[in-house]
Design a protein that fits this description.
Number of strands: 3
Strand order of the largest sheet: 1-3-2
Strand content: under 5%
Distance between the termini: 113 Å
Number of domains: 2
Number of helices: 16
Keywords: Membrane, Transmembrane, Transmembrane helix
Shape: elongated
Structural class: mainly alpha
Radius of gyration: 29 Å
Largest sheet: 3 strands, mixed
Helix content: over 70%
């Protein structure tokens, strides 16, 4: 009797243990499957937003009224293909060059070699200036939002801007000294047009390279306005008004930055059906992400995928902060950036993936718009 009772208890215990083991095994199997499903649903939700933004940003085009038919960006690309590299022969940081561009010294004060470089590239500057007289601003030939980083023009456009920083203000000074103030003012307007056009399409990627020529021509633009004819001043006022309208605001710049970074950081996990909806250039980015050797390991992959939601939320906060008045904007951007910080990712990446200097870029945009408005008001 006792033996039968003990045998029954042992059977119950074995059955209970078996059930517990099966439940635990089910949980062990269900947890990774459930985690994978959560990441998949999250990727689908976030990818929808990336696709919407990428399509709208890639399709942007702008028309500058009163200009000649043609695409500013396509024209600039051709000029970039033959852009000189003057970083050694005629660096804009050279003290003698800066003295001439600021109007302190005459054009003749340049070294013979420097004047020879300027003369050798007058035709090239005229080609760039002609781009500034065209009406359409739209992506073309390796330039624009999400452009392929392997395209040759990704390297040649910064070189173009650096060469323009050296040459444009010197040619403006030469024209002013020869009594051709209208020509100097025309070159000023063209420089402002081509730099703003490229920055509008490519955002923060183009901001720092365009900073050089915009600042370099500032003093010459003012002196040209003082000496130019009434007709030239009127044309310049209309032109600068169009350039100011073309100039981007901080929110649009941050929307482009958010979308570009999302493709670069998380493009490998954009579902195929959404990847097919992306613009062609954006698909090149996601293809690179999927094809690249994955060296971060399982923990790095999981950490980055979990960060996607935090990244999207934080970047949208930065974008919203960029719309605030300047007095409130910087503090709001900094607060949003603090929530974006991802120190745990430094273990798997070379550095924190976020730039975290967005308030500086917003300040530059303020300066650009203020400079354009001041020139327009002075021309009128």
């Amino acid at each position: 009797m006792s033996s039968a009772r003990n045998s029954g208890r042992a059977g119950i215990i074995r059955h209970s243990v078996k059930r517990v083991v099966l439940v635990m095994l089910g949980l062990v199997l269900a947890l990774p499957v459930g985690f994978w499903l959560v990441l998949t649903v999250q990727a689908r939700s976030l990818a929808q937003g990336v696709v919407t933004d990428a399509r709208e940003l890639d399709a942007r085009s702008f028309v500058l009224s009163g200009n000649e038919p043609g695409n500013v960006i396509d024209c600039l690309g051709r000029a970039a293909d033959v852009s000189p590299d003057l970083s050694r022969q005629l660096p804009w940081t050279d003290a003698a060059v800066m003295a001439v561009t600021s109007g302190v010294s005459p054009f003749a004060a340049l070294r013979d070699e420097a004047r020879a470089e300027v003369d050798a590239h007058r035709a090239w500057v005229a080609e760039v200036a002609a781009c500034g007289r065209l009406a359409t601003v739209a992506p073309a030939g390796g330039l624009g939002a999400f452009a392929d980083v392997r395209h040759g023009r990704r390297q040649s456009m910064p070189r173009l801007m650096e060469s323009l920083t050296s040459l444009a203000p010197l040619l403006m000074r030469d024209a002013l000294e020869q009594g051709r103030a209208d020509d100097a003012l025309e070159l000023c307007g063209a420089t402002l047009t081509v730099t703003t056009a490229w920055m509008r399409l490519e955002g923060l990627e183009a901001m720092l390279p365009t900073l050089g020529p915009v600042r370099a021509v500032d003093a010459g633009c003012g002196d040209a306005l003082d000496a130019a004819s009434v007709e030239a001043r009127q044309r310049f006022a209309r032109r600068v008004g169009e350039v100011a309208r073309l100039g981007p605001d901080g929110a649009e710049m941050m929307r482009l930055e958010r979308t570009s970074l999302a493709l670069q950081l998380f493009g490998a996990w954009v579902p195929a059906r959404y990847d097919a909806m992306l613009p062609a250039n954006a698909r090149l980015i996601t293809a690179d992400q999927r094809a690249a050797p994955w060296t971060r390991g399982l923990s790095g992959t999981i950490a980055l995928r979990l960060y996607w939601r935090k990244f999207d939320r934080g970047m949208r906060e930065v974008e919203a902060a960029a719309r605030l008045p300047s007095g409130e904007r910087d503090a709001a951007i900094i607060a949003a950036q603090e929530r974006l910080a991802a120190p745990f990712l430094r273990r798997f990446l070379a550095s924190d993936p976020m730039d975290l200097r967005y308030q500086m870029y917003a300040g530059y945009l303020d300066t650009l718009h203020a400079r354009l408005e001041a020139l327009r008001a002075r021309a009128e």
